[in-house]
Amino acid sequence: MAVDRTPVLKRCRQLGIEPQVMGYNKSSHRQPRRQRRQESEYGRQLREKQKAKFIYGVLEKQFHSYYELALKYEGVTGDMLMSILETRLDNVVFRLGFARTRKEARQTVRHGHITVNGKRVDIPSYRVKAGDVVAVAPKFRDLLPIKEAIIASQSMAVPAWLEVDIEKLSGQVLQTPTRDQIDLDLDAQLIVELYSK
């Protein structure tokens, strides 16, 4: 599996992403480099795709398959793409506050610490649907990283399409998220335009 070893803050700075989106409460004191020339339309489209891939931790092949899937749904393709990405299990674990960062959320899922409707799921790309209950498996509830994540996440707002029960370390998917419920500065339409060329 490909591993991006670029430091998160550096990559965030390159793509114009706030580190908090990735779960980091740090900020860079370096001034962003000024672009010497105006970015082309293609450059803007490519940057949006790179931002989405980086935020959700998805490689090109899988990202393109999500785009193909979004085309099959009724509605705005860009909004459908965002909804598909947002309902990945690793993202839901991060959004519920069971992990401090997106990378930690992926690792938590991979290690089998998460259940969906009472069954252990260790696939970060597993897609949840409305009504699903996502929880920390009982025997992993006392793990230090999970306890630290819960404490750190108390200042974060849980999206409206999710409901969390901190006492039980579980959350429920209330509905499939709509674009206006996804608080990311991403223009998915530019990604659609890039792929549709």
Can you tell me about this structure?
With 197 residues, the protein is an alpha+beta fold. It has two domains: 8-23 and 40-85 and 184-195, Ribosomal protein S4/S9, N-terminal domain (Ribosomal Protein S4 Delta 41, Chain A, domain 1, Orthogonal Bundle); 88-175, Structural Genomics Hypothetical 15.5 Kd Protein In mrcA-pckA Intergenic Region, Chain A (Roll). 42% of the residues lie in helices and 9% in strands. It contains eight helices and five strands, in the order ααααααβββαββα. It has a five-stranded antiparallel β-sheet, covered by helices on one side. The chain is globular and about 50 Å long. The two termini are 28 Å apart. The mean pLDDT is 87.
Features:
197 residues, Structural Genomics Hypothetical 15.5 Kd Protein In mrcA-pckA Intergenic Region, Chain A, five-stranded antiparallel β-sheet, 42% helix
* Elements, N to C (H/E): HHHHHHEEEHEEH
Number of strands: 5
Unreliable spans: none
From the 3D structure, determine the CATH topology of the largest domain: Structural Genomics Hypothetical 15.5 Kd Protein In mrcA-pckA Intergenic Region, Chain A
Compile the SSE list and pairings.
Layout: H1 8-15, H2 41-56, H3 60-72, H4 77-86, H5 89-96, H6 102-110, E1 114-116, E2 119-120, E3 133-136, H7 144-153, E4 162-165, E5 170-173, H8 188-195
Antiparallel strand pairs: 1-2, 1-3, 3-5, 4-5
Helix pairs in contact: 2-8, 3-4, 4-8, 5-6
Summarize the model shown.
42% of the residues lie in helices and 9% in strands. The chain has 197 residues and is α+β, with helices and mostly antiparallel strands.
